[in-house]
Amino acid sequence: MKLNKETLGKLGLLITAIIWGSGFTFSAIALDYFTTFRIIAMRFSIAFVILLVLNYKQLKQINKTYLFKGEFIGSILFLAYFLQTTGLEYTTSSKKSFLTAVNVVLVPFIVWIVTVELQPLKEK
């Protein structure tokens, strides 16, 4: 049976949702055994190793500009995960999942508000 692109796309979204959703539960369980910083350090280290293996050939293309931009974006991502995992200590997984999922709706509006060009007032 050959799957078409649409079916593969839907399957990919389903798998992504399962992995993403289960991450909240596993983070809540991990907080019983590890600190927030250690959980994030393990998570980022595992991701680093996986991406390193998958993209080994592209390492030659990395320069100082890429490293600086990567460090900047990585720092923002780290801060977001740190705050999110810290918040999980004070609320339930389901509430945190809901608040995180709201990003999908809010981010386009925030981008629109920030990037909209103000139109000059026309004189009558």
From TrEMBL:
Q: What is its main location?
A: membrane
Q: Which keywords does the record carry? A: Cell membrane, Membrane, Transmembrane, Transmembrane helix
**Coiled coil ranges:** none
**Which superkingdom?**
Bacteria
Cellular component per GO, a single term: plasma membrane
Q: Does the keyword Glycoprotein apply?
A: no
Family matches, as InterPro entries? Diverse_Substrate_Transporter, EamA_dom
Transmembrane segment boundaries: 12-31, 37-54, 66-83, 98-118
One Pfam family for this entry, by name?
EamA
Localized where? Cell membrane
Give all residue intervals belonging to the EamA domain.
8-114
Q: Give the way it sits in the membrane.
A: Multi-pass membrane protein
PANTHER family reported in the protein's UniProt record: EAMA DOMAIN-CONTAINING PROTEIN, OS03G0707200 PROTEIN-RELATED
* Family recorded in the similarity comment: Belongs to the EamA transporter family.
Put simply, this protein is called DMT family transporter
Organism, by scientific name, is Aerococcus kribbianus
